[in-house]
Design goal:
By secondary structure, the protein is an alpha+beta fold. The protein folds into 2 domains: 48-204, Phosphorylase Kinase, domain 1 (2-Layer Sandwich); 217-331, Orthogonal Bundle (Transferase(Phosphotransferase), domain 1). It has 10 helices and 11 strands. The strands form 4 sheets. Strands 1-2-3-5-4 form a 5-stranded antiparallel β-sheet, with helices on both faces. Helix 1 crosses helix 4 and helix 9 (277-294) crosses helix 10 (301-308). The longest helix has 21 residues, at 165-185.
Length: 333
């Protein structure tokens, strides 16, 4: 385990069903100042997507008709409004999406689809041409935001938005985009956000070698849970030092990808100034402690909370320079 910003002494490895050649190490954090953008007003005014939907030119109308008739969007055609299709159309025009794939997951508030990225996505992600990306589409008309209120209330970025669903979703998606950027800058492995348009977010697709979605912690057997826990708690501390609390962290939103642990689902993450930040962090610590205790790790929620909230100037010699151990994971039989 390394301290903040340190290079791991050895490569950690993980696999899902077989040994992986990918390195399982901590990322090098960028310089992060302050505690985030919690005082910056989020722009929830109409976007290009709204203007495209209102204009309904011939090219957009033909594109909308064609995509609504595809298998992956037939069911959602009655749920997605014209501006949602306008947002997707704008992201295609901007080179973030080249072709849509099938759904990865569906939920009360959002659906996530795979897609082939366009030229712009390729430039930002690098690697092969037409990289696979994830497209998260929040459903404004059908969403129930009761579960969101605890994360929205008390966040100054949402003041004045009220109960207008379109404004709430637009702000939420922009917050998720900002949270992902800040987490990555802090050295937390999270999906790379690429673009946001109205209620649609495009980001790096976290997949297995076989092309399917990455396996969650609860879906794999962890042969070295001690090392996995050390990485997770370090990511929690880095998030906190960058001014963020995940707010819903558990074994269900940490996945294995190319030999690394990846934190996902940061849409609900709040700043450390949020009125419920302490409660959310305590819950995160309890969830993580419970899971790794079930894996044989000697950990309590209180100890984890103390580690995550330790002052930046504290000396963490116990974490610096430790030899990293191998973490081998395979799918549960």
């Amino acid at each position: 385990m390394t301290g903040d910003g340190g290079e791991p002494s050895d490569a950690r490895r993980a696999s899902s069903g077989r040994r992986s050649d990918g390195e399982f190490d901590l990322l090098e954090p960028d310089e992060v100042e302050g505690v985030g953008d919690e005082w910056e007003e989020i722009d929830v005014s109409d976007t290009d997507a709204d203007r495209i939907a209102r204009k309904r030119d011939r090219e957009f109308s033909q594109w909308r008709k064609r995509i609504k008739n595809t298998e992956q969007f037939k069911v959602e055609a009655s749920v997605f409004d014209d501006a949602t299709f306008g947002a997707m159309y704008k992201l295609v025009q901007d080179g973030y999406i080249d072709a849509f794939g099938g759904p990865i997951s569906t939920g009360k508030e959002a659906n996530v689809y795979t897609a082939l990225g366009g030229d712009t996505a390729h430039e930002e992600l690098g690697g092969t041409e037409s990289p696979e990306v994830a497209v998260k589409v929040y459903r404004i008309n059908a969403s129930d935001f009761k579960d969101m209120r605890g994360y929205l209330d008390g966040d100054p970025r949402f003041e004045g938005i009220g109960s207008d669903k379109k404004k709430v979703v637009t702000a939420w998606v922009r917050k998720e985009f900002a949270n992902l950027k800040r987490a990555r800058a802090a050295g937390v492995r999270a999906p790379e956000p690429l673009a946001v348009e109205r209620n649609v977010l495009v980001m790096e697709y976290i997949a297995t070698d076989a092309g399917g979605r990455a396996k969650r912690l609860n879906e794999v057997h962890i042969e070295n849970p001690e090392t996995a826990f050390e990485v997770v708690r370090e990511y929690m501390r880095r998030l906190h030092r960058a001014g963020l609390v995940h707010g819903d962290l558990s074994e269900y939103n940490i996945v294995f990808h190319e030999g690394q642990l990846v934190v996902i689902d940061l849409g609900q993450a709040v700043t450390t100034y949020h009125g419920n930040a302490r409660e959310f962090l305590q819950r995160d610590c309890q969830n993580i402690a419970n899971f790794f205790a079930s894996q044989g790790v000697d950990v309590t929620a209180d100890d984890l909370y103390e580690f995550v909230t330790a002052d930046e100037d504290d000396e963490d010699d116990e974490d610096d320079g430790d030899d990293a151990e191998d973490v081998n994971s395979r799918d549960e039989e």
